[in-house]
Amino acid sequence: MNTHKKDLPVRSDLRNIAIVAHVDHGKTTLVDTMLQQAHTFRANQEVQERVMDSMDLERERGITIMAKNAALRLETPDGEMKINIIDTPGHSDFGGEVERVLSMADGCLLLVDAAEGCLPQTRFVLGKALEAKLTPIIVVNKIDRQDARPEAVLDEIYDLFIDLDANEDQLDFPVVYAVGRDGIAKTNLADESDSLKPLFDAIIENVPAPRADVEAPLQMMISNLDYNDFVGRLSIGRIVAGRIKANSEVALARLDGTFKKFRISNLFAFEGLGRTNIDEAGAGDIVALSGIEDPHIGETIADAETPVALPPLTVDEPTIAMNFAANVSPLAGREGKYVTGRHLRDRLAREVLTNVAIRVEDAQEPDTFKVSGRGELQLAIIIEQMRREGYEMQISRPEVVTHEENGKLMEPVEQVFIDVPQDSVGVVTEALGRRKGNMTQMVNHGSGRVRIEFEIPSRGLIGFRSQFLTETRGMGLLNTLFSHYAEWGGPIPQRQSGALVADRAGNATPFAMANLQERGTMFVEPTTNVYEGMIIGENARESDLNVNIVKEKHLTNMRSSTADIAVKIVPPQPPTLERALEWINDDELVEATPKAIRLRKKVLSSNRK
Hints:
The protein has 14 helices and 35 strands. It is an alpha+beta fold. β13 and β14 (274-277) form a beta hairpin. α9 (376-388) packs across α14 (577-583). The longest helix is centred in the N-terminal third of the chain and has 14 residues, at 150-163. The protein starts with 13 loop residues before the first strand and ends in an 8-residue tail after the last strand. 41% of the residues are buried.
């Protein structure tokens, strides 16, 4: 897709660039200041921080989940230059977003934190960018941090390029030092700067202008989908060859090899954070268009008379799977708008259209669907989005996606990169060792923190994150990256504690909770409606315990000055969605509704377990 033939004409007024990095290294913040300094916004326009993170979940969590397009215009000595920017997620669970949008770019800005250096997703996104033959520009960001070490980080970047078998042209990359939040960039650390001009200059000079034949038959890969209330479904992608006009007829090359003709009703170009109507666009442009019925990511919009499909989009295979089922608990249907298996099937089918990294298939049980993805966070985000849309569902414990090779069962193995205080090294190493983890590297930078690398089966990481944060008192950083498939490693110990399970329906009472709280940690508040088989807390011991949490204090004729003083209850700890998915065992489910996250046993009746 990104190999450029020397004899094709050049679009010198255009640059297409993707911004890639590890999570929290400052991509979206840098895009903010780039748009501001290119005068994309009016002087009196109020602009919120991380303006590209438009989803509610992105703002709440402070991470980018969906790749998005923007564009800015710069005045250069040769005239006006348009730069199309693609902001990508940094978390490895959303790697599919990165893979599908890199086909729209000719170059990439690789951001690396000046203190944290190269982390797992840095390796992943750089590997994909080099595979796609993108021209890299290195931005060492956050050089104003107290613990910044830009020279050492640059050495790490060179090592990473060599490790990924970069060719000589790719190794000759330009380096820009930046403080993205303040909108400052410089080519040398000693330089004075108060703007991003050095970065803009590096993009114009180093990112190749699109080379494409505007006279050839039309070819455009659909890399993204969107929806507009006025024009319907939008197909977004880069025109690889030819021209496209509004109200013209095109052919859609389906993924199954068939072709169908449609008429383009509207054509849009990206300007700033929005889109503007245009009449025509040529090869090299990134556009959005409407009029295509039921488009899918990876399909090709081609010339109506001589349609030729582009090679299909390929993304890495999923490694984690969960079962999504219609909610059948005693409280089902009270809080959600969409509660049946049919609703669930339709919603997951729509998710597959826009999310190329997940797979959905029917499970053995009725109204149950096996959803496979890149990681627990990716699937948790899908569940959270569905909850907010009014869906009720129950979800099983995450399991790894295995396959057979030469008669042997193979399971996914992950690289784990851990950054912890020195005094936590022992407990973390011991915990990962129990889960079949092997230490591959250990580096002490002398700052009181140690960076350790492990290889561990993906199964061993399910439920480990919360334990890791507890062991490191919230001071540890844990990042993972899929490595390879290896032979099944045998059983891995799971949760050490049991569950406190309600043995009857009713409302939780303070009197019962006060007597039960010494047994373990409570998950529910007083007066919460519970049902038989619902998990109301974590037992301090390994076995499950059936408890009566609805027991009330009986009135008597006896009176005393102290007997009726209000009971003191330790504040309960209701689990978050991610914590709940990690915590449950194979015989338990998470019940997710718009108003609550509940835990339950698969078999509710206590005398049938």
